[in-house]
Amino acid sequence: MERHLPATWSEIFEGGSMEAEHRLFLTLAQDILRVQELNRERASASQALRTFHAKMVIGVTNAHLVISSDLPERFRVEYFTPGARLPATIRLSNASGVPQSDSTADMRGMALRISIPSGSFHDLLLTNFPVSHARNARQFVNFARIASGDRATMAQRMTAQFGKEETARILSNLKEAARPCASLLQERFWSRGAILWGQAGPVRFNIRPSIADKSTVKAPASTADSLTRDFVANLRTAEVIYRLALQEFVSETITPIEDGAVEWKEADAPSIDVATLVIPKQDIDSDGQRALAVVDGVAFNPWNAPSSFRPLGNLMRARKVVYAASAEKWLRT
Q1: Interatomic CA distance for residues 72 and 105, integer angstroms
Q2: How many Å apart are CA 308 and CA 197, to the nearest integer?
Q3: pLDDT along the chain (333 residues), means of 10
Q4: C-alpha span between 85 and 280 (Å, rounded)
Q5: What was the pLDDT predicted at 81?
Q6: Helix 18-42 × helix 137-147 angle, to 10°
Q7: H or E element in which residue 123 lies
Q8: From residue 323, how far is each of 53, 171, 237, 326, 327 by CA, in Å?
Q9: What is the per-residue DSSP string for 217-237?
Q10: What CA–CA distance (Å, rounded) separates 194 from 132?
Q11: Which of these, 313, 269, 327, 331, lies nearest to 140 by C-alpha position?
């Protein structure tokens, strides 16, 4: 039986109001810009890079999202209608703010831009680990600031900032999340933060490879660009298929909106498939070079969304300000 009414939920603004929280975000944005500049210096780049996810692994402009024909009624919001086929742009990346070899242990990201019938678009951002290391934006930025400094004293400075237990939790999370990756074709990606989904209420979303899409092309040995080479080689022989799924809010205890460090577990909030993401068979090396340049110039932001799909929670609200400030910097230089 379908759940017809979403569970009771709310947002809690740091500082007690939306205005106070926004002022904090403006300060955090300046901290992130300083991290961005340090990353540029470390990479010996002539211009500013994205603060995170600096290296694009694959970019395509000709993907499409097909909404499931049996989409549950509560998920039929605005453009999200059964059977709809929507153009999509995809950027797959390494998470580091400094470009490095694909063989390096790191998290990976997927940015998906869906073109919608209104003439606008909707951005969905995901990472290949289900939970953030940071509980909120303040903790996220403070960690980024500390991590951009001397690595020899990082743990000591983290303990002074976050305390012993939180430092241990953050470092454990990052150790598990930042790992070698043989192929992005078999990686699952999670939003890690919630968004509104119209009348269905808060959801988190994830994207996983289709079970039927088992690659027959052997992944190349780990090299500086092995993830790119693997994806390109597979696309020459077959389309790549992923499934988009939603997890519904249950309660503030089990599926909190404001704490990004708490995983929405499948046992509590099962993933419900709602659409199929298809990257068509193609030869990116010969046909897609212009597309790669176009995608790498796109400033993805989860706030590029219709109001029915607005981001929720402190970390997601901060992205509106912080991502915009970072993008202005790297787009301008």
Answers
A1: 39
A2: 6
A3: 69 96 96 91 84 93 97 98 98 94 96 96 98 97 93 95 97 96 95 97 96 51 86 94 98 96 98 98 75 88 97 97 89 68
A4: 14
A5: 98
A6: 20
A7: strand 121-127
A8: 12, 24, 36, 5, 6
A9: SPPPPS-TTHHHHHHHHHHHH
A10: 12
A11: 313
CA quadruple 178, 321, 56, 216: dihedral sign:
positive
- What pLDDT is attached to residue 288? 56
**What does the alpha-carbon distance between residue 223 and residue 104 come to, in Å, rounded to a whole number?**
9
Residues in the chain: 333
User: How many other β-carbons are positioned within 10 Å of the β-carbon of residue 104?
Assistant: 13
Residues 6+ apart with CB under 8 A from 59: 89, 90, 91, 92, 288, 291, 292, 294, 295, 296
CA 256, CA 259: separation in Å to the nearest integer?
Answer: 6
Measured CA distances, 101 to 93, 98, 175, 176, 224 (Å): 12, 10, 18, 19, 4
Helix or strand holding residue 203 (H, E): strand 202-209
Let me know if domain 18-332 sits in CATH 3.30.160.270: no
d(CA 258, CA 251): 12
pLDDT digits (tens, 9 = 90+) for 125-137: 999 999 999 999 9
Q: CB–CB of 108/184 below 8 Å? A: yes
Coil, helix or strand for 303?
coil
- Token code pair at residue 98: 């400094």
For the whole model, what pTM was predicted? 0.93
Distance CA 76, CA 2 (A): 13
How many Å from the N-terminal Cα to the C-terminal Cα in the chain?
A: 54
